[in-house]
Amino acid sequence: MSIQTMALVGTGVMGMGIAQIAAQAGVNVLLFDARDGAAHTGKEKLKQTLDKLQAKGKLTEDDVKATLERLVVLDKLEQIKDADLVVEAIIENLEIKQTLFKQIEAVISPEAILVSNTSSLSVTALATACQHQGRVAGFHFFNPVPLMKIVEVIAGLVTDEHVIEELLDFAKRIGHLGVRTKDTPGFIVNHTGRAYSTEGLKILGEGVTTVSEIDRILRDGAGFRMGPLELFDLTALDVSHPVMESIYNQFYQEPRYRPHPLTRQMLTAGRVGRKVGHGFYQYVDGKKIDEAPLQSVPNITIFDKVWVATDLEQDADILKQYLNAQGIELDSAEDPANDSLCIVATYGEDATTTALRLGLNPEHVVAIDMITDFNRHRTLMPSLATSRHYKDQAHAIFAKDGTGVSVIAESVGFVAQRTLAMVINLACDIAQQQIATASDIDQAVKLGLGYPFGPLSWGDHLGAERILLILERMSAITLDPRYRPSPWLQRRAHLNLSLLHTA
Ligand SMILES: NC(=O)c1ccc[n+]([C@@H]2O[C@H](COP(=O)([O-])OP(=O)(O)OC[C@H]3O[C@@H](n4cnc5c(N)ncnc54)[C@H](O)[C@@H]3O)[C@@H](O)[C@H]2O)c1
């Protein structure tokens, strides 16, 4: 309970969010902004928010009154002198933040803690502006602060341990989960986020399928709340493209974070997303107007026999049960008959590679992605040589019970497999680099990115061996080091241990 008074410098979107949760938790908050009247306006807007919460019955009149009394607007920076903790949430610019840090240090006590809400700058670099560098840390909240109950507590190279501990305690006091993070580009959450965004772009760039279909597969099939391309439209490319470039370059062009030229071009053209009415989709009044409907299902009622091959036993059971239920005759011979449709549930390959590996006639082969929830959405991948006859039959068969089906062009690792494998593998690699503990990575990403599971729990749920198989095959076929499996994943998959397991 050592922190009694917090000063908040920079009363914009993030600053006022942090001020709100601290004041609601009983902390006295001093508000300062360099722009005349900005702190007053910030407090006034916050009053309106609190009034709305009161109207909804979420706060009492006394809560609102007490919270507002704890928020004190200052005219001069020097008036923050009695703060135990100073939170900086000004413009994202190293030199401007460093200048401010010097000014702050000149007025606060030597024991006070000084933190930045930076999302992309090095905390170690920020601290070099200060006399007492050990007191400087990162305190990275997410927007909107009151709803995103997670904060990364970032230790610079010379941050004192007691500072990190006090911040973790303080985070808890104000109702957030604090996760200890090393000072590395993107910290935990924005670092992990590279996998989903860049793989979505790579899939689009390879011509695997359309914008709508990529989003649909990852949303409906894989369980993400939003597809990667609609998510780009929401965050806007003027924000997200520079972050992609910055993290990639800060890690010295590590291929796992490789951005795509398409978003640079869209940014140049001003097609930055929803806020301008045009990004990957077009928007009118904030609503998408050109999302393509599900691909239409071929009208077929007579089917050939279906021969099934799967990498995993569990997939064979699901497929055979489904085909039986739909009245499709199975070809149960060891090798397919000359006129059977061959359905292959493969991992980490394209349909051509699987057909050749299994010695099948590629004209008869359609691959199916079994990593997605079979009852929610299905992805089919014919080989380049698959005939129209078998492609259409497969589409009709797997749409027969009304479940959505996406038919995609050849892609090593379909859409969902390669994306999930990238997300899980990157989280594994962050754990391997000891940027944070496995359990903190898992919780931070779930809360910070709104994934249905933490990425390591997700890997356990889908099976670490399966994820490893996808990555090993993708690496072998594409020769792209982007897909190399992290040692963290390899060891745990081989030893049949949870991805959250630590020595
Ligand atoms: N917006 C987000 O989603 C988000 C999320 C996490 C972290 N961040 C980080 O939080 C910080 C603030 O972002 P924001 O979106 O709230 O910005 P914002 O533009 O809404 O607010 C910044 C405020 O800082 C004030 N300011 C600028 N220079 C100042 C100075 N020298 N001294 C005092 N006040 C000054 C501005 O007048 C403005 O009111 C940035 O470092 C940003 O990277 C933002």
From TrEMBL:
Its EC number(s): 1.1.1.-
Keywords from the named record: NAD, Oxidoreductase
InterPro entries: 3-OHacyl-CoA_DH_NAD-bd, 3HC_DH_C, 6-PGluconate_DH-like_C_sf, 6PGD_dom2, NAD(P)-bd_dom_sf
Residue span(s) of domain 3-hydroxyacyl-CoA dehydrogenase NAD binding: 6-184
Pfam family, one: 3HCDH_N
GO biological process: fatty acid metabolic process
GO terms for MF: NAD+ binding; oxidoreductase activity, acting on the CH-OH group of donors, NAD or NADP as acceptor
PANTHER family noted in UniProt: 3-HYDROXYACYL-COA DEHYDROGENASE FAMILY PROTEIN, 3-HYDROXYBUTYRYL-COA DEHYDROGENASE
UniProt-recorded name of the protein: 3-hydroxyadipyl-CoA dehydrogenase
Naturally occurring in which organism (per UniProt): Acinetobacter stercoris
